[in-house]
Specification:
The radius of gyration is 20 Å and the shape is globular. The longest helix has 21 residues. The protein starts with 7 loop residues before the first helix and ends in an 18-residue tail after the last helix. The strands form 3 sheets. A 5-stranded parallel beta sheet has the order 4-3-5-6-7, sandwiched between helices. Strands 9-8-10-11-12 form a 5-stranded parallel beta sheet, with helices on both faces. It is α/β, with parallel strands linked by helices. Helix 2 runs parallel beside helix 8, helix 2 runs antiparallel to helix 10 and helix 10 runs parallel beside helix 15. Bound molecules: fructose -6-phosphate. Fructose -6-phosphate binds next to helix 4.
Length: about 375
């Protein structure tokens, strides 16, 4: 049942090219530069009427929400807030009929996320769910749903469910931006074409597996890790750190790279591996200078950079080169080596990869 893989988590990591294809299947309208979402339950006029989107989720799904804020603000020019569901539901949040709630949940059963949907409904807002499990409680209570179609995820640490959430959010952003007019047909065509290339890029990133394993061997005895990124790479840094914590039990923190000098820089010494997400994008120069600050303090930089970036490769202690890709798919490509890193460190430590201690796949109680 593990299809020749040693653990479900590894099988699910390697299933991702197919999983994202399933998320997109029958939904991309390439010639129109648009997306068809069968159960969205919102008209174009309704979408154009929202002044704000509130995303609520927990854990890994919350990280997907943070990437969603970046994409929705960038592509749709609508203001987006992202909340942890257990905070949102108890805060008396400002929500009205002009607000669209977007609830993200793999299981569709997370108690706090379900309560957030009820809270929003109580205040007259509409709620859309991004869920993996069909007919789950959150999917049923929401006014519309975008299913991720990742297939059953058995590993407790979420991998393919997260990546397909990112795809579902991209599809939603494209649909939303086309409905409101924020995204032109031409831009829509560009974006659908970038999404269509995604499975091939994931295949390429998966080929880093052996290189990631040797990095895991080199660093798995460290007691702390720092993960740094900017823009859409910041939530991926959070997710990389969470994955490592969950299955390797190593303390890890994700931070926006620009925040480093406001505190975490004090932690950096010659024992601290720092995973830097340094793709050639609009944040490149800034992240490179953060990387230099880490190196100047003796930190051991593991860089995830764009293929051919010899400058970064020379500076870092370890390097993983990723295929150059469009911004809309870059957060997904960055996620792959971070999943593999957490996986290999966990295996080297002899941990139960698929069933980490104290964690449950579905958190149906508060
Ligand atoms: C992390 C993980 C958890 C879940 C969180 C929300 O690998 O699996 O952080 O993401 O418990 O679960 P869902 O998405 O089912 O609401």
């Amino acid at each position: 049942e593990k299809g020749g893989f040693r653990h479900f988590m590894l099988k699910e990591i390697f299933e991702q090219p197919r999983a994202v294809q399933d998320t997109m299947a029958g939904r991309l309208l390439e010639e129109e530069g648009n997306v068809y979402l069968e159960d969205l339950g919102l008209t174009d006029a309704e979408m154009a009427g929202f002044s704000r989107i509130c995303i609520v989720a927990c854990g890994t799904s919350w990280h997907a929400g943070l990437v969603g804020k970046f994409l929705l603000e960038e592509l749709c020019r609508i203001s987006v807030e992202v909340d942890i569901a257990s905070e949102f539901r108890y805060r008396n949040p400002v929500v009205s009929s002009g607000t669209l709630l977007l609830a993200i949940s793999q299981s569709g059963e997370t108690a706090d996320t379900l309560a957030a949907v009820r809270e929003a409904h109580g205040k007259g807002a509409k709620a859309i769910a991004i869920c993996n499990v069909v007919d789950s409680s959150i999917a049923r209570e929401a006014d519309g749903v975008v299913y991720t179609h990742a297939g059953l995820e058995i590993g407790v640490a979420s991998t393919k469910a997260f990546v397909t959430q990112l795809v579902a959010i991209s599809l939603f952003a494209l649909r939303f931006g086309r409905a409101t007019g924020a995204i032109s047909r031409e831009r829509g065509i560009e974006l659908t074409s970038s999404l269509l290339h995604l499975p091939a890029f994931i295949e390429e990133a998966l080929q880093l597996d052996t290189a990631v394993e040797s990095i895991a061997r080199r660093y798995h005895n460290s007691s702390d890790f720092l993960y740094l990124g900017r823009g859409y790479s910041y939530p991926i840094a959070l997710e990389g750190a969470l994955k490592l914590k969950e299955i390797s039990y190593i303390h890890a923190e994700g931070y926006p790279a620009g925040e480093m000098k406001h505190g975490p820089i004090a932690l950096i010494d010659e024992n601290m591996p720092v995973v830097m997400l340094v793709l050639r994008d609009r944040h490149y120069e800034k992240v490179v200078s953060n990387m230099e600050e880490v190196i100047a303090r003796g930190g051991r930089v593991i860089a995830l950079c764009s293929a051919g970036d010899s400058e970064t490769a020379q500076k870092a202690e370890a390097v993983l080169e990723l295929p150059s890709c469009a911004e809309i798919v870059a957060p997904i490509i960055l996620s792959i080596p971070l999943q593999l890193l957490a996986y290999h460190v966990s295996v080297l430590k002899g941990n139960d990869v698929d069933q980490p201690r104290n964690l449950a796949k579905s958190v149906t109680v508060e």
